[in-house]
Amino acid sequence: MTGICQNRTVIITGAGGGLGRAHALAFAAEGANVIINDINLEAAKEVESEIHAAGGSASVSIFDITDYAACGEAVQNAIASHGDVHCVLNNAGINRDRMFASMTEEEWDTIMRVHLKGHFCLSSHAVHHWRDQAKSGQSVSARIINTSSGAGLQGSVGQSNYAAAKAGIAALTLNQAAELGRYGVTANAITPAARTAMTTQVAVMAERMKKPDDGSFDYWSAGNVSPLLVWLGSEHSSHVSGRVFEAEGGKISIADGWRTTAGLDKGGQWHVAEIGDAVAQLLAQEVPAQPVYGT
Fold it and tell me: What does the alpha-carbon distance between residue 29 and residue 85 come to, in Å, rounded to a whole number?
């Protein structure tokens, strides 16, 4: 296969199903060597077989994305097998939904470990490799693609753990972009909206997102998200970094993040009695944030 990712090696976590599977198929179709990571070996092998049947290059790598040493081994194995690694696509994730007042410590910690630590471990080892390459004078065109969520950008009722973790991933992406550009590494994030096992756990969402049976455009297909990520993982995207993209159906947009307003500057210390009026002025001038999901 030939394409914009020809001979580029990409590691995709959570690639045994849903969005990850769609990403793996799309990258392979554009010539990438796809390393499929998933906790489900059978599902990962099915994706590998599907890629091979289409003439693409793929292999399965089962490792715990929250195990730092295991992630290091995965990166080294990719380099040993393909000569280099060019892109890390952090896609794997889970839900532990609960209203904040009822959330357990375990439900909080599990989400933070899988989403935040899971986004750190693999990328950290890849970055060490790319930094060493850059310092030795090699040309580097590497990519980190993270998976955030609309829940992380604006909140989601019943998902305070998930929303906090996904917000952290968006902020992590900004930092990675600012720090790693000197080594030839870009970092971008995606907030996808698609039909997956996670998004259709609730009956009303499953009904809303079901595949049309009349052959019309499948708005909620996970495959609608993947072309953007393939382009971001290619050499063509070297000028784009530190962005959080949103993808849903046939629409691509960029999330416009926190911005400091003009504000009120008294030129001296505020008195407590003055704060109420000052805040009222600020609220009257602000552009309101998008509403929290579920409100």
Answer: 18
